[in-house]
Every structure is written in structure tokens, then in C-alpha cells.
Amino acid sequence: KRYGEEGLPNGTIHLKLKGHGGQGLAFGLAKGVRLDLEGGSNDYDGKALSGGELSAYFSGKAGERFCVRNSGVKAVVEGVGDHGCEYMTGGRVVVLGSTGRNFAAGMSGGIAYIFDEDDSFQKKCNMGMVGVGPLTETASDAEMQEVKALITKHLERTQSPKAQKVLDNWDASVAKFMRVMPSDYERVLLQGAAVVKETKKSASASAYTSHKAMIT
């Protein structure tokens, strides 16, 4: 009530928790409040977030349906069970290990990056709505640096030997990542980028014409 619709400034309250978070941790968390959990938790963490920030760092593998219906979370994990990223609509997910079957079923947004050491991932991926290709062939340098930054932050928070190994041999490691992206989502992003490029081109041409007319 005191801060109105704008809510608290970012970083006003920062809680660091250790132990088990239970059910529905950070449900409805308001803007300006950040929770860091070091430990375990149950279902519905971060459900109905209302501007708050929930940070979770996973040391080890996750179970089934990791990041199901993810709509914006950035996550790094060292392996997942079946149905990973099912119905995902946004966010970024980095998997530093193997996945179970039916990965990316119903995935319509966001991007996943799989460290595919044994070339087994494509057989486990549901290709119904996504395209899969080597990260080095399908992503920009900026996107590859974003993936590296996510892994670096994961290492800082978890001291993961797996993340350390990947980063220590980054030039070789990056070539083993597979990039999973929904086909329709990629098309929309490309169309949007083309519109922005054309708009800038038209604006530049108009400015040149106006400048030329003034000189004349």
C-alpha cells in the first residue's frame, strides 16, 4: 500500500535461505524482494511471482519434467530425467549432462542448451515443435557468451566440478552443445529482427534525403 503499483525498488530485501524450502516457496513474491535458496524444496516454487526474484542453483541432476511450462526462468542443471522442458514457453535452460526421453515435447518458446558429450541427445528429443543443431553453427557469438556466463554463475554458486570442467576446456566444450529452439519461435524472432533492420534502414534513408534537401 505504501509503495503502490511500482512496488519496492529492486534489491530492497534480499533473503538467503538454507535448508528445505517446502511447498510453494516464494509464492506471489513481490517486486523488490529476492530469495536465494541453498537446499531442497517441493512443488510450485515461485508460482505467481509478482515482480520478485527467486534464485535457485542446482548441484547435480534433476528429476522428470524439469522446467515444465517454464515461461522465463534461466536455469542450469547437470542432467534431467524424462520430459525435460515440456511445454516450455520462455527462458533459457542449460543442461550440463544427459537428458531423459521426450525432451522438449510441446515446447513453444525459450531456448535450451544440452551438453551432448556422447551424441545421444537427438534420439531423446521430441522433434515435433523444435529444431536442434550444434550451438556453434546455430547461434551468434553473443548467444554463446550468454551460455558461458550462465555456466560461470552456476559454478560460482555451486562449485560444480562439472561446470568447472566445461569452462576449463571451453573451446572444446562449446562444440559439444546442442541448441534446442522451437521452430515457430525462431521464425517470429527472425521476422522481428528483419522488421527492425528494415525500419532502421528506412529511417537512415529518410534522414539522408532530408539532409540532402536542406543542403540543396
TrEMBL record:
Q: Which SUPFAM superfamilies match?
A: Alpha subunit of glutamate synthase, C-terminal domain
Q: Where is the Glutamate synthase alpha subunit C-terminal domain?
A: 1-55, 56-139
InterPro entries for this protein: Glu_synth_asu_C, Glu_synth_asu_C_sf, Glutamate_Synthase
Please name the GO terms that the record assigns under molecular function: oxidoreductase activity
Give the protein name, as stated in the record.
Answer: Glutamate synthase alpha subunit C-terminal domain-containing protein
The lineage, from the top, is:
Eukaryota, Sar, Stramenopiles, Oomycota, Peronosporomycetes
